Amino acid sequence: RSSPNSSFVWIKYMAFVLSLADVQKARSIAERALRTINIREEDEKMNIWVAYFNLENEYGRPPEDAVKKLFQRALQYCDPKKLHLLLQGMYERTKQHMLAEELLEKMVKKFKKSCKVWLCCLQCFLKQGKDGVTVVSRALSSLPPNKRIKFISQAAIQEFKYGVPDRGRSMLEGLLREHPKRTDLWSIYLDQEIRLGDVEVTQAVFERATCLSLPPKKMKFLFKKYLEYEKSIGNEDMVEYVKRKALEYVEGPAGFNMPFL
User: Are the CB atoms for 67 and 53 separated by under 8 Å?
Assistant: First the structure.
């Protein structure tokens, strides 16, 4: 009662009642929570709907129909894109791949200009070991131009994590050919190579990045990242090398007045 807007408290209450095998009472608690939580607390209400989906997914008769019926109700009150993404996440977590793919197909039609929805679709495909090329192609033909860089860079991360790293590299290389001064793209590329753990490949990307003619602030960012990387793997010779390389840049005309690392 002291926290009527706290979804955490309501969900704990639901979980306690479920531990006593009282499914109907858990449903009534979810309904009370939805009535009680202030209408302005959208995220808190959304958490209750998700907990309710999970309940019906476990105990509904049959679960698939119970969840879909509840989802249609929730759509009247919640942000539709957020709700679709949350339901899709539940399907994926519970390995209901057919339902997840059915929902994704609806989502990419309903929200075809949403980068987040297309990335969700790509991740689902890659995690199942499927080729993501078609998804990427469809996304690029649907998304507005101002979302293209964001989508490709995030899609590349997903290829590094769940798909084919070389495809991720190809995507980032393409972006960097068009936007070589975007340090955010270099940072994404470096982070993925660092995560994969091939030292030579990672150092080669750092070398390319730190040989660019970028504004001093951007070069400082890249040199600092390079130095932190070499320190993290304990390569003292390379730490000294990076310091020398940074100092050469600072003492050159491009690095005038740039404070050292």
Answer: yes
CA triple 46-49-54, angle to 5 deg? 130
- Give the model confidence (pLDDT) of 108-117 as tens digits: 999 999 999 9
Q: For residues 35 and 32, what is the distance between their CA atoms, to the nearest angstrom?
A: 5
Task: State how far Cα 161 lies from the chain centre.
Answer: 11
Q: Do the beta carbons of residue 206 and residue 171 sit within 8 Å?
A: no
For the chain, the domains span: 1-78
CA torsion sign for 135, 110, 64, 50 is positive
Q: What is the pTM of this model?
A: 0.88
